[in-house]
Amino acid sequence: MTAIGILTLNWKIENNRSTSHEIISLIKCIQKHHGIRINFDWTPGHADVRGNEIADKLAKEAAKEANQIQKEAHITVTKQDIKTAARILVNKKWQHRWDNSDTGRFYYNFHQTVSNKSTFNYPDHKTAKIIRNLRSGYYLKNYQNKINQNIDPKCECGQLETVEHYLLFCENYEEARQKLIHEIYFNTGSLHIDLELLLSIEKNDNVSVSNETLMRLLGDFICESRRMNSSFEGLILLLGEGDFSFSVAMVKFLSKQYRKLMVSTSFETEESIQKHKTALENIDLLKEHGVTVYLATDATKVHTDPRFKNVKFDRIIFNFPHSGGKSNHKKNRKLLSDFFCSAENIITDEGQILMTLCKGQGGTPADKPMRAWHDSWQVVSMAANAGLILKHVWPFVVNDFEEYSSTGFRSQDKGFNTERAITHVFQKGEIIPLPTESISLALIKSEYLNRRIVRNLFKEDNHPVSQVYKHLESNIAEHFSIELIPAPAPVLEEVPGSLKELLVVINGEMPNSKYFENFELRFYRTEKCSEFDGKQTFEVSAVTIYDFQNIDGQGKLSNENSCQSKGEITYKQQEGEVTECQAGVYAVQKMSGCHLRFSLLEHLPFLFNKIADSNHETAGNVNEINDELENLHCDQFSDSDRQIKDKLPLLYLMTGQVFRPCEINPFTCPVKSEMLGVFSFKSGEICKSEDISSSFKKITSCLDASFPGLKISYDALENFDTDLPGLNEIGSIQVDFDCPSEIRDRTIGHLWFYKKHSNKNMVNCLVFVLDLNLLTLAAFRLPHVELLFSNNLDFSKQCTIRGDNSFEYSPVSLFPVMFDHDMSFWENEKKDFDEYTFFDVIRGVAKDSVMSVKLIDTYVCDITGRKSRCYRLQFQSHDKVLSYDTSWKLQSKIRLEVARELEITLR
C-alpha cells in the first residue's frame, strides 16, 4: 500500500530513480519482517481487468492518505526533482512563446519544436554552425542591418543579401551554385533546389538524398563561395594571442592553403607563455596545421620587426588588447594608437584591421550601452592617427569559436567577460591635407570654388545628385512634355541687376519672397575668360562678395569704391578632362563686372522670350486639352497613345550650378545644383487662380511620386493677385529631415507666378526652383551636404535607389568623431566685421572638414568699446580620415588666416 501511494504521489516526476529505490527498500522490508511476497504485474487497461481494478482502488485509497503515508515513509523532494520540474515548465513556456512569436518566422519553418539539444547529429561543429547561421541569416548583411542600420544590407551585386538570394540567385556565386545543382542531380535525379530542400535538414526523410549528403553539399557550396568566412581569407596576422585558443578556433574556418598563410603571435616569451595551461598544446596543434607561430612579438612595433620585412597582410586581427594590470584608459588608448600606426605599414591598400573590444570600450554607438567619450578607449580616434577609418562593426559571437577561451585578465591566466563584445573593422582612408603656406584671400576662395565649379554633379554618372535628377525628371515626364534647356556658363557678364529689376514690382521695392528671405542677398563677383565656350574649364579668381542692395536698377554697383580686387586675376583654360597640371595661363584682365550665377532665375528673361516666340504658345493649359493631334497621322497611334500625347502640357527645364555666400552648417554650401522649371499657360487668355493651383498640385504630385519616403509639405498662398506684373511667389516646398533645431530652414523649393507683356501677347507662367543638393541630402539622409563633392570613389556606390522608390545610403566611414575648437577675437574697430568672408576663409583653409561654425558669445568692453566674438568650430569628416591632431593644426591655421585677412586681433 505504501509503495503504491508513493507511485501515486510522484507520477509527474520525470526522473523516478530515487523513488524506485525507496519502493525496492520498502518491498524488501515487508518481505523480511512480514514474510509477504509482493509481485507487480502490468496490464494495459482498467475495465474488466480484476487486477487493474484492485490497483485502481488501492491507488485512490493511497491518494487519500497521501500526507500520512509521506510522513511515515519520510519521502523528500530531491534537488534533481526540482531541476527536472523547472526544466519542464521552462520548456513549455518557451514552446508557447516560440509558437506565438511575431519574429523568427523564417527560422520557425525549420525548427518548430524547441529543445536544449540539437535534434540532429551534425558531423562537426563547423557544419552545425553554418546551417544554423544560414537558417537565421546571421552572417548575411540584411540580417546585420537590422542590428546596426549603418551596415549596408545589400550584397556586392546590389540586391538585398538574404538567405534566399545568397543560396539561389546571387550571380557572384553562380559557379559554386552550378556545382551544387550538379551534385544534387547526381544524388536525386532532380535539377530543382529550393530553401526547403537545402535548409530543412531534419525534415528530409521523403527526399532521396541523405541529410549527411545535403549538409556536405551545402558546406561545399559555402566553402566554394567563401561568403560565410570571407573575413578570414588571404595572408592573416593575429597579434596579442594569449593561449592561442582563438587561432586554433580559426583554423577550422580555413582551407589548408589559407592555414599556411596564417601567422599567429603573442607578446609572451617562451617562459611566460607557460602560465597559460593550454598554450603549448595549442602551439603544437597550430604548427601541425602549417600555421606560423611567433612569440615575443610587440603589436606596437610590428613594422620594425625583421620577421615581417617586405610582408603585406590582408587581415590583421587583434582581439581584446590590454596594456596590462588594472584598467587605465590613457595607457590603453596609447596602446591602440601605437598599434594602428605600426600595423598600417604592413597591411595592403585594400586590407582590413580587425580589433575586438569588450562591451563599451570602443566608445561608438555600436556599443550597447554606449559609454561617455571620456570613459572609453576612443578606438575611432586612435585609428585616425594612423590614417584609418571604421568601415564595419560586427558583434563578436564567442560561440562561433568553440575552442576559444578568453584569458589574460590583468595579465593573468584568468578569463574575462566577452558578452556584447564588438569587432571593429578598419581600412585605409584618404587623409585630409594641411595647408603648407599662407594664401591670399582671393586664392583661398577661388581654390574652394574651383574644385566645385568644374563639377556638374547632376551630369556625373551614378552620382547621388544625378540619380535624384534623373529619377525626378522621369516622374515629371509622366505628367509633362519636357523641353530641356541647357544652362549657360555659370559666370555671367553683368552683375545681377537684371534679377533685381525682374523682382521689382511695386514702387521699386523688393517683393515679399521667402526665396530671398532665406539667403542673404549677396553674390560673388569675379572675372571670366572671354574664350570660355562651355566645353572647357576655367578658374575663378579674385572672388569678392558684394551686397545685393548696392546694385541700382541698371545692374551697376552704386558704390564703385567697394569694388576692389583682392589680387592678380589669372585664368587657366584647359581642354578635355580636368587636370591640375595642365598649363595655359592667360593674361591679366581688368575687372569687367562679371559674377558667379546667383540663381537660375537670372535666365528667366531668356526663357520668357523663348516662350513668347515658341510655336507651342497653346500647349500649356492643364485643365483644357485639345482633342486633336495636328500634323500627325492618326493611324500611327493607338487611342491610349493619342490620349497620353494630348494630355502632356509643355514644361521647360533648366539645371545648373548656382553660387551663394552662406554660413557653415551641415545643410548649406556656397555651390549647389538648381533645377528651374517654367510652365506656360495659354497665351492671350486670362489666367485664373484655380488654373495656377491645379498646376501647382500637378508639379507637387511629381515630387510625392518620386520621393514617397520623404515627408514633403507645401506652403501655398490661398489668395494671390494674378493681375500684378512681375514675379510673385505663390508657395514653397519644405521637407522634414533630421537637422539641428537651430537650423530652421528646410525649404527645398519655391514657386512663382510670372506675368509679363511681350510684343506679341501676354505671357503667364508658373515658375519653380528646386534645390537638388538639399533634395538629395534629404532623400538619401546624408549627414553633410559637402559629401556630395567627395572625391572618394566609394561614395557614389554607397547611394542607391531601389525599385520601390526608396533611397539608401551606406556610410563611407562609420561613427566619425567630431572635435570642437573655440576661436575668440577682437573685431577691427576701423571696419565692419564681414561674417560671410569669415566663413569663406574657414572653407578655404579647412575645405569641407568643418561641419559647422556657431557664434556662441559676444562681448563689448565697457572701457574701450571694442567688440569681441567667440565662435565654436566643429570639425568632422564623413569620407576622409580626421584625427584630433589634424583638427588642431587646421584650427591654428584658420586663426592665423582670419587674423591676417580680416585684420582682427586674436584672443
TrEMBL record:
Residues covered by the RNase H type-1 domain: 1-64
GO annotation (BP), single: rRNA base methylation
Domain (FDX-ACB): residue spans on this chain: 814-907
Domain of life of the organism encoding this protein: Eukaryota
GO MF, one example: nucleic acid binding
Gene Ontology CC terms: cytoplasm
InterPro entries: BMT5-like, Fdx_antiC-bd, Fdx_antiC-bd_sf, RNaseH-like_sf, RNaseH_domain, RNaseH_sf
The protein's name: FDX-ACB domain-containing protein
